[in-house]
Amino acid sequence: MRIILFNSKNIKWQLLGYFGxxxxxxxxxxxxxxxxxxxxxxxxxxxxxxxxVIAAVSLLGAYFIASQFQRKIDTLHLxxxxxxxxxxxxxxxxxxxxxxxRIYNDFNxxxxxxxxxxxxLQKVGEENVMLLAQSNExxxxxxxxxxxxxxxxTVSQQLFAIHMSASSSAKLVERGNxxxxxxxxxxxxxxxxxxxxxxxxxxxxxxxxxxxxKRLTEALDKWFPDYCRHNGLQxxxxxxxxxxxxxxxxxxxxxxxxxxxxxxxxxxxARHVDLLLQDNGKQYVLQINDDGKGFxxxxxxxxxxxxxxxxxxxxKLGGELEITSKTGVGTRVKVFMPKFSQGxxxxx
Length: 348
Description:
Elements: H1 11-36, H2 44-84, H3 100-174, H4 178-206, H5 216-230, E1 234-240, H6 247-268, E2 272-279, E3 283-290, H7 305-316, E4 320-326, E5 330-338, H8 342-347
Parallel strand pairs: 1-2
Antiparallel strand pairs: 2-3, 3-5, 4-5
């Protein structure tokens, strides 16, 4: 329950009013006690009890006043924390004829201005992401040509060598010269093993990293379990989205997820990984948890290239990245992306 006795627009005058009222009540109580309760000014026992009562009442009054102001400050602090976490729709309802209303109104104006700026940033960021994706088509074509050359120079030649070795060993076996065939067969096994490794490497490079005209949930349903299986991870995925995302947002989140999972494989030495993506109405919240070796947050690892790339991708669309890690326990990476409706983005 909120009680306002002094509707001053200035906090210092309201405080002076509260304490003036408290002093007035104390003085009045003392005067009444002296006139009607104390029969002698020398009655020390009664005066001592009266002093203790007055002290208790004074402390309760001061606590009540301080609690009123602390509650208002806490409200402002919580709203600021929500704003820093990317919840740009956070607003503080006015109290009504209270000096904190001026601070709350200024906060609301600042939050509205920031929300509009981030809307514009997200809109431009999404456009840039898609333009960059289109411009990468030429680079993708060149990369495919390079991979084709690598296939010809490595795998193709080694397959030819395997064929020649297999033919030679078959002829030697037909002639009954198995001793000379044995070294060729050993070489054949080594060549086939090497070719298999190189082919897997090239296939990994050819594996698509884009959404390929799929929605984010559809792409993750296929990509995430395959990635975990290929890298010896036990993965668990939980996606809760109420509305469809923009193409640029899905593209950027998919790249962040890929970078985060790559960090788990390269650095964490984890066995389990959890991927969570949810829409809480005001934000998209992405979370990647692993049970790996972790690291000290104040160490250099938190500034590694992979985490920096994830943070930059989040910032491009007005988001924030939060990292929590402890040595021997694991790492949690959370990404908060502000959510705007299509109408809001068009108005911005």
